[in-house]
Amino acid sequence: MIRVVLPAHLRTLARVQGELKLDVAGPITPRAILDALEAAYPMLRGTIRDQVTLQRRAFVRFFACEDDVSQDSPDDPLPEAIAAGAEPFLIVGAMAGG
Amino acid sequence: MSGVRVLVGTRKGAFIMTADGKRQRWDVSGPHFGGWEIYHMKGSPADPDRIYASQSSSWFGQVIQRSSDGGKSWETVGNKFAYEGAVGNHLWYDGTQRPFEFARVWHLEPSLDDPDTVYAGIQDAAMFRTTDGGQTWRELTGLRNHPSAPQWQPGAGGMCLHTILLDPARRGRIYIAISAAGAFRSDDNGETWRPINRGLVSEQIPNPTAEVGHCVHRIAMHPSRPNVLFMQKHWDVMRSDDAGESWKDVGGNLPTDFGFPIDVHAHEPNTIYVVPIKSDSEHYLPEGKLRVYRSRTGGNEWEALTKGLPQSHCYVNVLRDAMAVDSLDPCGVYFGTTGGQVYASGDAGDSWTPIVRDLPSVVSIEVQTLP
Fold first, then answer.
1. pLDDT computed for residue A97 by the predictor
2. Which of A9, A46, A60 minimises the CB distance to B79?
3. Structural domains counted in chain B
4. Residue range A2-93, CATH number
5. Does the CB of A81 have a partner CB in chain B at under 8 Å?
6. Which residues does chain A have within 8 Å of residue B35's beta carbon, measured at their own beta carbons?
7. Predicted ipTM of the assembly
8. pTM, full prediction
């Protein structure tokens, strides 16, 4: 099980509370997690990454084990602690005011 | 007794205000979608319980919400607005060409007779349509592929398609407006388009009478007389009596002819409303007075409506989609301000009272007259 934490606005949109737990097949990468997340919660499509280009939205960040992995390739493997479910994969709204 | 439902979009959520036909006591619900910008909400003329909302955020992009119970509950529907075919370029602020890029939905216009069909005007300017209640959206590519598109440029708020008017008498005729490109008309349900800007004069572009490039802020039409259009332009209040083929200036005695909204009385097709703003760089009211101006002559002769509105130290603005009318008798008129006030008049503008005073900045207002 992969643990995922969404920002508050996306939890509201997805109508969930707290952490999500997702079954993710294959190597655990940001892309694999987002594919599984959007399949389970289609209302999140387009809110984290563009629906056509699949590029991360500019004001969204991905944190894993206290590292910002936003700029890494979406196909890079995430740390074992994420893959094992020991640590959550954090999807964060950038600190940008508003 | 009939009633009204006022749909208010703000910078930080949506609010829904309802009243009976007297329009004196209001029930206010919200914020719905708190923290998100609600550029527009509108109900279906064919089914008033069907409401669509454009919800957007700089962080999380575009979401479309749909209600089938008059705004009591909502469900997300499709939010994929993908340009079809070659994307093409438009003019950027610095004079260079820049590819069209989707930013948000500015306006949702439900079909007059099918609750599942809705037109969407987006930034960067293009027109989309759904026929399945918002689940999927397809671009009407004839507009963005118009040969003039490389000359379209963004206004201060972005290059937005903000006005969509459906002609109730001649089905398939649609008017739209883009800042800053101008007004366009389709006579074939959005398949092909042509500019309708003859008579507009804009000193801010190299050729003031060019076919495109005008910053049209809003167009309004009375359903009983769809060939007559009223326009609030960047500067100038204009009127067309021939379905947009030509325009003439009807600013008359307005204190300034800069502004954003314009609307038409529900029962008097020649009675129109504007809210003049000081200038293009001073987006606030002249003299610190909140004055709605009404013309009962279709323009040129205007009277200030001030009863119940602040007449000192008021420096708000009223945005282009933030005025609407109901169809009760007497006609109700509503507008929202960037200061978060929503004012209502139950006597066609003679007097005003605030429904609420302290919302987030108001972006849009629509009114449904309920049976």
1. 63
2. A46
3. 1
4. 3.10.20.30
5. no
6. 9
7. 0.94
8. 0.96
